[in-house]
Amino acid sequence: MQFIKKNPNLRVQDELNVNNITRIHNLSFLVIFMEVFMIIASYIISIPSYYRISYYLLLILSIIFNFFTNNKFSYKKLLQRIIVNVAIYIFSIWGIIISIIDNNRGIAPFIYLINISLIVSFITATPLEMILYNLINAVIFFIVFYINNSLSYPLIINIVSFHIVLVIISIDRYKSITTNIEDKINLKKLNHELTILSTIDHLTGCKNRRGLIYEFEKYEGQVVFALLLDIDDLKIINDKYGHDIGDLFILNFAKILQSNFGQNSIYRIGGDEFFIISNDYSLETCLRKYEFSTREIQEISFVTNSDIKMTTSGGYLYNVITNSKDFDSIYKKLDLALYSAKRKGKNRLEFTE
């Protein structure tokens, strides 16, 4: 049923494929249980021998389908789709064969109808796939019954009506399930976008403290350069020239840091405080990048005829992150080093173990 053109929304189609594989896997457990029960029952009560043979056959096939539809083969999607299709049509044809034998013994062909109903209830396919599936099964059914000289007008009317009803039910089910899957996909996408937005600082475009904590675990076990720094005396600039000018200083401060250390290494912790973390460079290279940054920072000026020069102070470390959950203690050490730099006259960098 998967050989028809895929749903335009590939993510929905993938979800449907996974859903079908899971449901076929679960159905195989049910069939295995039923066949074991029927095999035991066949030895207790008197039933036709062809039933017992079919029970053994279905038990073996169900075990095979169960094995190939488990998570071990989830990476072999084509194989699993083939297995699903084979399972469906074997199950259907088995129902036709048993129904023919039953019909010859004067029993109505209800096994076939039960099989088709069970498959439709477990498989979600596109309307075109389901129409083709029902059409193929009905044609096979009519051909086999015609060859067996068992075809009659009432039977034709009943089987055709039965398949039409199944198609209508399956189309409604398909629309309901795909709508539900699309809603889930859109919700995941929206949640992902909201998560990203919640980690971005609106002024500078840098990631914020939440983003830093969220990504900090990727540095566990690695040697990193970590630097906590801020702008010296930004309060004086804000008080004298206004927060708009102060924001321009912060914005350009962030751009300079990003141009030297890379956009993904800079985080705005709050106010004019920034956190830099990198595992791409040696300590000497990182310190040179910091020197380049401070020179550019001192050249920033947004106020005409002003002698204000923006400087920065910070505390840094160069060490292995042994525990990514220990961010608070690392931050505290860097904050103490930053405070030490401020006490020693600002416009300087202090090292912390």
Please describe what this structure looks like:
The structure is a single chain. The chain is of the alpha/beta class and about 350 residues long. The protein folds into 2 domains: about 10-195, no CATH class; about 205-350, Reverse transcriptase/Diguanylate cyclase domain (Alpha-Beta Plaits). It has 11 helices and 6 strands. The chain has helices at about 10-45, 50-70, 75-105, 110-120, 125-145, 155-200, 210-215, 235-240, 245-260, 285-300, 325-345, and strands spanning about 205-210, 225-230, 265-270, 275-280, 310-320, 350. Strands 1-3-4-2-5-6 form a 6-stranded mixed β-sheet. α8 (about 235-240) packs antiparallel against α9. The protein is elongated. The chain starts with 9 loop residues before the first helix and ends with a strand. The model is unreliable at about 1-5 (pLDDT under 50).
Trace the largest sheet across and list its strands: 1-3-4-2-5-6
Range of strand content = 5-15%
Helix content: 55-70%
| Model regions low in confidence, pLDDT < 50 over at least 5 residues | 1-7
* Average residue-wise pLDDT: 84
Number of β-strand runs:
6
Order of helices and strands: HHHHHHEHEHHEEHEHE
User: Span from first to last CA?
Assistant: 64 Å
- Global outline: elongated
Give the total of domains: 2
The helix count comes to: 11
Class computed from helices, strands and strand pairing: alpha/beta
Biggest sheet, in brief? 6 strands, mixed
Radius of gyration: 35 Å
